[in-house]
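Subject: mismatched residue count in predicted assembly?

I count 668 residues in my input, but I want to confirm that the predicted structure covers every chain. Input:
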Amino acid sequence: MINFKIVRRKPLPAWAKVVIPIGAVAATLILSAIPILLAGGQLWKSYYYLFYGALGTRFNLLETFVKGSPLILTGLAVAFAFRAKFWNIGAEGQLLAGALVATVLGVHMSGMSRPLALALIIAAGFLAGGIWAAVPGLLKTKLKVDDVVSTLLLNYVMWHIMGALLFGPLQQPGSSWPRSAAIADAARYPILLPRSRFHMGIIVSFVAVFIIWFINNKTTFGYRSKAVGVNIRAAHFGGINTTSVIVWTALISGGLAGLAGVGELCGIQYRLIMDISPGYGYTGIVIAMLGNLHPIGVFFSALFFSVIIVGAQTMSRMTGVPTYIADVIQGVALMVMLIFLLFTEYRIRVIKK
Amino acid sequence: MSHIFDIAFISGLIGATMRMATPIIYATLGEILVERAGVLNLGIEGTMLMGAMTGFLVTYSSGSLWLGVLAAGAIGMLLGLLMAFLAVHLGLSQHVSGLGITIFATGLAMFIYRLHFGSPTVPPIVHPFKEVALPVLSRIPLVGLGLFTQYSLTYLAWILIPCLSILLYKTNLGLKIRTVGENPVVADTVGVNVVLTRTLCLVVGGALMGIGGAFLTLAHQNMFLIDVVGGRGWVAIAMVIFGNWDPLKGTIGALIFGFLDGLQLRLQGMGIAVSFHIFLMIPYLLTIVALISVSRKASIPGALLKPYRREEKGG
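Triage response: the counts match. Full output below for your records.
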């Protein structure tokens, strides 16, 4: 009889951190062939259109960055929180909080100069998302309320707050739909490249990657945040104020998700609608894991999923495979990456008896 | 406003409370069983959606409602098995494994539905379960009609509540399950198979979650909509904590949720101008408040979230 045993292995060299996500992507694409084939899609044709649809033309390539921007931000949000073992599943609600506050300000900003308007909106959107995440951070540290559950529930609370406002005071006058009036021109992210939707929010997300990398690697706070994640008791006895670190980590994490909401509102939609986010906050969890919680990893992993989401449209049109294949691939990728990560710490030993 | 307090309204509200609580009860019972064995299954939301879709699809194709329920239970079992493979056999992070299953199952449910039905302008429907009025009981004044004119699946849920209580507290198997959840090292020492126990609990719990989902498409509604589950799985996760991992107390939480959900529908139906969004927010807020008060005395299973690897015993 052959038995398997999972045993600890020596730490892997640094290159493994790059190879493992790439391997996970490859394994994901192989596994995702099953639903594609079951849907009657020809495999090579389907994958060809998946990537062609995302990268093949100038417009599609830029569109991949457009979709990638909120994913980078929610991915960073989740990664920054998970690194400190603050289980922020609430990026979706924090994104909505950012978009909501940006709307409230944006509709009243006509006549203001654009730099001032955008600076205000970015700051307010960051703060809104941050506060919406700091609440469960405080609940966790002060009242021992489980962060997974509280952040999840707050997503729904924020969604209903948004609904109540969009059917109430924020509703566009004369409209029977739950949507706000359009925000002022000054509050809109400028389009940076002609004949595309490549807006300034994309640059904001790139800058965020750098800032989080800087915080993680070059500041005491980044060090403390990681120490709390590795071993909260040791961090506490080492003299770190763990409560303050967790709450600040939550605030920054939520702020990043809030910026994703600002980007969708001020760069794409220009008015608040109920489905402003197709679940970017949840996809952020997948992105953070595939990116190994590292900002550079998050950057590439967000762009990968953006390729999948954008490309799935073309693939669906050309082969008839439903666009929801993009969601299936996300789920598969998360589980595959988790298994791959296991093998960075453990290996399987085959025991023959 | 006097008509708010008339008998028809109260009776209708009781009925709606029972109906809206049913899927939450199934999911809460399933999650309690799983967490008592030491596993947090965040795959619950996706498992419910997959159950809702599978139940609908099978009933639509076969014409049999109970076949749909069985299929929903079976798909829940499969997803429970997948969770067991990731979180128990491989010992991966329970948080991330569960979220992975929810994301995967959510995508898969919509993928299969779209593949099978395309994007019709009018969603396909089935003939849903009919309410069954229990003889005598349903004629009890005031409360009888609401309590005892329910779907079979609702009655089944109410039978399952004491069953799970008895299983957990009065049987040898229940003792084993709770020991595995509290202290797997001890369980292992006295010869309980930790991995097998957790796997079985995940499989049975998954079946309950799947059936809870099927209730939404086969009884509560007669069609599958993408947001049909709408966070009820997460509510169940909260109800488990609210109910201190106890089937009876968890049910009370589910009933409160069902009551607010039912009241909201009733008031809306009567044209009373309350934003339904504000109403639907209340259960989530109440749950968070409840979490604050119970977290001080929570009797959380000792080994929850901790994977068990035999060779790392005590390490």
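Chain B has twelve helices and two strands. Marking this ticket as 'not a bug'.
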